[in-house]
Design a protein that fits this description.
Transcription Regulator spoIIAA; 43% helix; six-stranded mixed sheet; 28% strand; alpha/beta
């Protein structure tokens, strides 16, 4: 029974519609979502992000929704996630990349609820826009396991 449960956990982790990348030169942690994203994916990604932040101590964070096909996340889940303490230090700039109007609206709702302290979390339309705000021209992201 335990083996079946562990196999289920491993297989469900492999299907997660997100991954992390890190630019060690600029110390940027990137969370890239792709495909169909559901509530449990947001919760799992936030838990995984906290581990990466603790280990890597990034100077900036970017959550990129550019490759999201569907976002099936109720407002309650967004509110709960937004009210949780950020794994980043207070002074750390963070960006959410949301290219479509729907994703931009959802990300703005999250931003309004989570923006503590003010102006450290911003929603932008492209990764290029986030990098420009940071003054980064040539990032070198490497995928994390």
């Amino acid at each position: 029974m335990l083996a079946a449960y562990l196999l289920f956990l491993r297989s469900s982790r492999q299907r997660m519609p997100y991954h992390f990348e890190f630019d060690s030169g600029h110390k940027i942690l990137l969370l890239a979502y792709e495909g169909d994203v559901q509530s449990r994916d947001i919760v799992n990604a936030n838990q995984d992000m906290a581990q990466h932040v603790a280990r890597l101590q990034p100077s900036c964070g970017i959550a990129d929704l550019s490759k999201v096909k569907t976002l099936d996340v109720p407002a309650d889940t967004l509110r709960t996630a937004a009210r949780r303490p950020s794994p980043y230090a207070e002074e750390t700039p963070r960006f959410i990349v949301a290219p479509t109007d729907y994703l931009f609206g959802m990300a703005r709702m999250y931003e309004i609820m989570a923006n503590r302290p003010q102006e450290k979390l911003r929603v932008v339309r492209s990764r290029k826009e986030a990098l420009a705000a940071l003054g980064v021209r040539e990032p070198k992201f490497e995928r994390l396991e």
